[in-house]
Amino acid sequence: MIKTILIDDELPALEALSYLLRQYPVLEIVGEYTDLEEACQKLRHEPVQLVFLDIQMPTANGLDAARKMRQYQNNLTVVFVTAHNQFALQAFEVDAIDYIVKPVIKRRLDATIEKIMGKIPQAAHEPLPKRRGEFFNRLLKGALTNDQEIAGQAQQLGLDASQPFSLFFLLPTPQTAAPESNLAPDFRHRRTAMLDAISTGSLLAWETPHGLGILDFSPVSAANAKEEEQLAAARLKALLDSRFPQTVAAIGIAPQPGTLGNFAARYREARYAALLGIRISPRTEVYHFLDSGLIMPLAHYIPQPEIDTLINNTFGKLLRYDRQNSTELFVTLEAILLNDSLQTVAEKLFIHYKTVLFRKQSIEKILGFSLNSFTGRTTLGVALTLLYLNQTPAAPKE
């Protein structure tokens, strides 16, 4: 995407131009300024490829401003926007790519964007899947919130913002979840192959900051949406396991088909379903948000600092004790919370029942409350859920 800043001393004109330009997914608006010096500070410290610049401002001349900004970034592409046309010749003397007279209309901007893409060819030749992926990730970050803006960018990418879809999140296994800079060339190639293999027919896949996202535009019946989505996700998991083994740990499914209007929330729900599901039932592999119970939605509403405090005040004590004494009390507590009886815990951990009782008493002493109390178990259940959602899970044990 082309990193772009806008400069106009008139705020209404700046907002109107910003609204129009945000409908072009090839542009990423990284700054909007009514003050030229603030814009220059941006250019001093961050790469910017394109500027839309008012040519007449009370405290500065746009022509001189363009020359000054090129001292910071000499490859900066400039588009002048002005209410007057008498500066057109001078504008091109400073190598402006275009000169637009206000009021700016979209049809005129279309021609400007075409010129820009010709001058910055990497943007013009970015593959459509990559541009779609960038668009989806901007939705996840909350960089796009206006419905008309979303619809405009979606249309330019060949998408219908009103078309419903199911949303899946593919949780990578720990060995394939490293940042891109740490990935071996063979895995980067395999990841590209995975995206190509998935993005066929009604499926559209992209790389997210956390794994892979998939939109499935297959129609599903309202009465059986959950079951149909689970079957589709299971087929997808089987396909990936056969072609790319040990790459995807789990698939999470967002509740009910929806549209781009609530994209970020639905992605978060699909991701949470995978993160929590694989810890509670690692062999299931496909997890629907609607099966997650009532605790997980709390993560939507609890601020992150409070989540960190809750985890630290509960499991933090236990984890520190385990590190200092080489014990496994946290593992025991986790098993107690996830199973119905202490006998089941003993069988799953391959230890004697009396050992579980002794560890339970030690845990209660460290935490300061009984694991038999409703309040205590509820607090720990919420904290455990939030802990799972705030970390990458270990690979499921065979």
Label this structure with key terms:
398 residues, alpha/beta, Sig_transdc_resp-reg_receiver, Transcriptional regulatory protein YpdB, PucR_C-HTH_dom, phosphoprotein
Approximate strand percentage: 5-15%
End-to-end C-alpha gap: 43 Å
Oligomer: single chain
Largest beta-sheet characterization: 5 strands, parallel
Helical content band? 40-55%
- Helical stretch tally: 17
Strand order of the largest sheet: 2-1-3-6-7
Q: Tell me the Rg in angstroms.
A: 27 Å
Task: Give the helix/strand class.
Answer: alpha/beta
Residue runs with pLDDT of under 50 for 5 or more positions: 179-185, 393-398
SSE order: EHEHEEEHEHEHHHHEHEEHEHEHHHHHH
The count of strands amounts to 12
Shape by Cα distribution: elongated
Mean pLDDT across all residues, rounded?
83
Pfam families: GGDEF_2, HTH_30, Response_reg
Protein name: Transcriptional regulatory protein YpdB
Domain Response regulatory: 3-117
Family: Belongs to the CdaR family.
Give a structural overview.
The modification 4-aspartylphosphate is found at residue 54. Keywords: Phosphoprotein. Belongs to the CdaR family. By secondary structure, the protein is α/β, with parallel strands linked by helices. The model is unreliable at 179-185 and 393-398 (pLDDT under 50). It is 52% helix and 15% strand. α2 (36-45) packs parallel to α3. The longest helix is centred in the C-terminal third of the chain and has 22 residues, at 304-325. The radius of gyration is 27 Å and the shape is elongated. The strands form 3 sheets. The chain has a 5-stranded parallel beta sheet, with helices on both faces. A 5-stranded mixed beta sheet has the order 9-10-8-11-12, with helices on both faces. It contains 17 helices and 12 strands.
